[in-house]
Structures
1.
Amino acid sequence: MQLNQGESSLVFEGVLFKAYGGFYYVKKGEEIWECSLRGKFRLGKGTPALVGDRVRVTPVRGNTGRIDEVLPRKTELFRPPVANIDQAVIVFAAKNPEPNLALLDRFLVLAESADVAPVVCLNKADLLTGHREHEWLKLYRRIGYPIVITSTKQDQGLEELRELLMGKTSVFAGPSGVGKSSLLNAVQPGLELKTGEISNKLKRGKHTTRHVELLPLLRGGFVVDSPGFSSLDLPQMERVELGYHFPEFEVFREECKFNGCLHHHEPQCAVKLAVEQGLIQQDRYQHYLTFLQEVIEQERRY
Ligand SMILES: Nc1nc2c(ncn2[C@@H]2O[C@H](COP(=O)(O)OP(=O)(O)OP(=O)(O)O)[C@@H](O)[C@H]2O)c(=O)[nH]1
Ligand SMILES: [Mg+2]
Ligand SMILES: [Zn+2]
């Protein structure tokens, strides 16, 4: 693209913090610039700009500009679409809506494969009956995932969450209605994110958050609120890679007879044996098999 005379000197670097209604909002210090995307990105030839991207902007007039370049990313997630994220807080509710563990496992694979550190957050702990920790939560804790149990109604786990967020860029992801926006409002009063009721009939969220937005935290770091999702495609990967994103397979994997064992039909598979012996949880293994089929089908398409 030809720059007008003098334009090059005005080019600046900023952070894309919100994409909404076809516009891209870039922060340069405290200034907010409303930007369009250079044609090449819109045509899908280059990498599309994601919230969290460091971008190079050419001013057009006033506080409007054009994003001409997306700088190299540290990490990228496409669901929700965010770049340069350190940590994904995967939020599920104890109830309303009921937790969907297949979806949780999907997101864990997605985060691990993108090198984004996952944190599992169980919100609406006030709806747990008898103060009993959900069985499934114990399993995830045993696997080694960081777990935080929260309630925005009873001020539970919020300080722990604040500490986990400090100094990092984190995305809040999970189904609609689990309380992602409510949690962020509770972590930092003043964010004033819109929250929505749960539908009485379906006990589901109503997709209140419609866009992805990067928000600065007073104690340092950034958080991204994102719209809820109810399904998730796995990222493209080789079939052998999938098992690496199930941390509890690791100690057994080395004992499998075959190198590159997929822990499916192979004989003398230590992972399968561990499942039979109850050392690896059955549901997790079933999710692994479901994902494996998807990854293999995906491989065929590319
Ligand atoms: N009982 C209980 N309800 C909560 C808690 N946190 C949030 N809620 C309620 O859950 C509903 C949904 O909250 P939101 O924060 O809008 O949920 P969300 O995950 O942002 O949903 P989307 O933006 O649609 O993805 C609201 O009615 C909240 O008041 C909690 O800790 N306990
Ligand atoms: Mg929300
Ligand atoms: Zn095996």
2.
Amino acid sequence: MAAATDYHLLVPTRSNHFNTCFYCGCIAAKHDYAPPQQYLEFYLATREASEFLKIPVCNECHELVKPCKAGTLDERHKFAKTKLAKKYAKALSIYDMWTVDELAALDFSLRHSIEAGLKLGAETTERLNFFGFDYEAGGISQQVHDSTPLQFDVFGECFDSFREALDFASKAYRIPKNALKEAFADNGNSFEQAIQAIHQQVAEKEFNQQLKQQCAAFAKQHKQAVIFVHKQVERYLSENADMTITEALQHLYDTRVKPAAARR
Ligand SMILES: [Zn+2]
């Protein structure tokens, strides 16, 4: 059986981090081990990457990180965050979607549950943004560098949280938050690309509606088959990028419909 002395206790360099969970910043109550104690012999025998650390963590992170077999502090920290984000996914999504000033318009029971989600979502966001702290272990100091602070850009307007950027972009560009959040994920995590993609979709939809309506009206007026009119107009438009639907219909009339009528 491996001895606890094979591990170095991770000790915060600054006193304000004493008794703090390294993974989420809550109050520490237990220790996590990198690598897990039951795999210590394996890590010692194989020299797989591990720092052999005994890490102060909170009860919840201790529980969440249990299935993780990784040997390094960084891997275990990431694992804990992924699990935390998954556990509170619903609250995080409420936190992204709602603002406090929208609560007033809701009825009591919905307001109550959204309020709770907002609070839990804010807490979880803070825990997920916790990057650990400088520490000493086995006589060696380690500095933990914060990741580059998050920044979200919406056509030149900068925000330091996804939530604020989403709220701004949704109001400024009149796109529902849900649709915008989805498009953001589908378009390289970029608000600009997401907004452009949505606007393009809307423009295409409007164009197709116009095409359908105008072709149907033309077909009726000149007693032509709708499918014929539609196909011809699409062909003209694909051959000439500057042509409008009206011009294409006029072209169809001049070159096909009128000459045919004259022959009769
Ligand atoms: Zn924790």
